[in-house]
User: Fold this.
Amino acid sequence: MRVHLIFRLTLAVVLAAPTLPALAQAAPAAGTDGGIPLSVGGGFSLWDPNWGSGLMEGGTVWAEWNLQTSYPAVRGFSLAAELRDISIGGSSTQPNLRQDTAAAGLKYAWPHYKKVHPYFKVLGGGFSEDFNLGPAAPNYRHDTRGMVAVGLGADFHAAGPIWLRADYEYQFWEELLHGYSQPNGVTIGFMYNFKGARAH
Assistant:
């Protein structure tokens, strides 16, 4: 299942690649433009829950605080936090499957280009999962543990303070009774940057 998801992401990147030269205008040096260094956004997530069978869907919201405003030496770095709910499209073996995650950490966006910012992120947090193990454990249907996530993607300037995002994230969960889970998936969405067109 991960192979199909990675194939779809790769195909999307390949199809978008011809547009990058037009977007890749060199960014100016950091300035003192107004506004607070905060971005908030949300989007649609297509997810491999690593449990049951098939892909699931849900939503993700995030917020980021650009550290460059206070510390120019860390240009490109932001504090990032995100919440995700995956609960649509459970399989026949796991019709009640639901995965909720909350995580925060660091994001680094390469600031060389003005209209497209490739990035990498490392987050830590926790997850909550509903599932069904059947007769083997009829009373064990929910658990909450810790997780670490890594991800990469790109933000694309759309207009004014609006940016579009394509994101891939891979999660490493603490072990549950049914074993280790490593959910992963893509999120497509948009965000509002309170500093205007300058996200980084």
Remarks:
- Residues 1-32 have pLDDT under 50 and may be disordered.
- The domain at 2-10+38-193 is CATH 2.40.160.20 (Porin).
